[in-house]
Amino acid sequence: MKSSYEIAMERLNKNAPTPKTTPKQKKELAELDSLYAAKIAEREIALSQEIAEARDAEKAEVLRAQVIQERKKLQADLEAKKEQVRNGKG
């Protein structure tokens, strides 16, 4: 007997099957993950140094918000590029 989860997954795959990725696409996706992980780490390190050197709490808070904003932007860029690769446009 199938669980309700298994039944739901079967229905989902019937309506919107999961696209298969080629080995080339998998390699490109892995390279993108690596590249963007490095970019995010680079920005976080640079801004964390600025936060440590900040003289007042207000400036430090602005820099923390900037870290969050830049991380979100880079992650959005990463997802857009991954989607291009998955659709064969990358």
Descriptive overview:
It contains three helices and no strands. By secondary structure, it is an all-alpha fold. It has one domain (21-86). The longest helix has 31 residues, at 23-53. The mean pLDDT is 90.
Fold blueprint:
Blueprint: H1 4-15, H2 23-53, H3 57-86
Helix pairs in contact: 2-3
Q: What general form does the structure show?
A: elongated
Work out the number of β strands.
0
Low-confidence stretches: none
Largest sheet: none
Number of helices: 3
Terminal CA distance reads 42 Å
What is the beta-strand fraction?
under 5%
Please give the share of residues in helix.
over 70%
Order of helices and strands: HHH
Output the radius of gyration.
20 Å
- Mean pLDDT equals 90
Helical/strand content category = mainly alpha
Domains (count): 1
Write a short abstract of this structure:
By secondary structure, this protein is mostly helical.
What are the key terms here?
single chain; 90 residues; mainly alpha; 3 helices
